[in-house]
Amino acid sequence: MDYLGHTINCHGFKPLHTNVDAIMKTPTPRTAKQVHSFLQMANFYRKFIHNFTELTRPLRPFQQKNMKFYWGDSEQLAWNGLKTALTTPPVFLNFPQYDIKTKKKFPYILSTDASNFGIAGALKQQTPDGLKPI
Q1: Which of the pair, 121 or 30, is modelled with greater confidence?
Q2: What is the CA angle 35-112-55, rounded to 5?
Q3: 3-state secondary structure of 125
Q4: Do 102 and 50 have their domain in common?
Q5: In CATH, what number is assigned to the domain containing residue 24?
Q6: What values do phi and psi take at 123, rounded to 5?
Q7: For a pLDDT cut of 90, what percent of the chain falls above it?
Q8: What is the pLDDT of residue 59?
Q9: Hey, which end of the chain has fewer CB within 10 Å, N or C?
Q10: What gap in Å lies between CA 34 and CA 81, rounded to an integer?
Q11: What is the predicted pLDDT for the residue at 126?
Q12: CA angle, corner 51, sides to 46 and 52, nearest 5?
C-alpha cells in the first residue's frame, strides 16, 4: 500500500518509488535555491539514509539566505552520494518483530553518535535473520 510518500507492507516501509525516481532525476543544481529545495525533498527520507547529516554537510550552507552559489568537487560528491544512498539497500525500515511461539520480543539495540556537525541515532532489532533497522 502506498501512503504519505511511503510504500508499506506487512514487514515494514520504504520510500515511495515514484518519489525516489523524481529525486534521482533532479539535475545538478545551478542555484543555491535549487540545492535548498533538493535538501528539503531528501530530508523527508532522511530516516532511510545512514549518516544523512554528515553526507549533506557540503550542501547545507546553501540553505542560508543570500548564499553565493559555488559548485565544486565536494558539493558534487555530496550530491551524488545522497542520490546513491536513497537507492542503495537497505532503504527499508522494519516493524518490530517477536517470536510467535514464545511471544517474546527480540532485543533492541540503540546506537547513537554525535559530532560538531550533528547528532544521530538508530534503533535496530536483533532477529534470527540478523540486525534489522526499525
Answers
A1: 30
A2: 20
A3: strand
A4: no
A5: 3.30.70.270
A6: -105, 125
A7: 25
A8: 94
A9: N
A10: 17
A11: 84
A12: 35
Q: Which amino acid type is present at position 54?
A: E
Whether the bond into 96 is cis, omega within 30 of 0: no
Residue where the block lists cell 511511503: 6
DSSP annotation of 91 reads -
Q: Per the omega criterion (within 30 degrees of 0), is the bond before 90 cis?
A: yes
Find the length of the chain: 134
List the grid coordinates of 120. 544521530
Say which residue the cell 544523512 belongs to.
Answer: 52
Answer whether residue 118 shows pLDDT above 80: no
pTM over 0.90: no
Across the range 54-71, mean pLDDT stands at: 90
- Dig out the grid coordinates for 17 from the structure: 518509488
Query: 7 lies in which domain range?
Result: 2-92
Quote the cell numbers at residue 9. Answer: 507492507
How far CA 118 is from CA of 23, 55, 58, 79, 83, in Å, comes to: 24, 11, 13, 19, 20
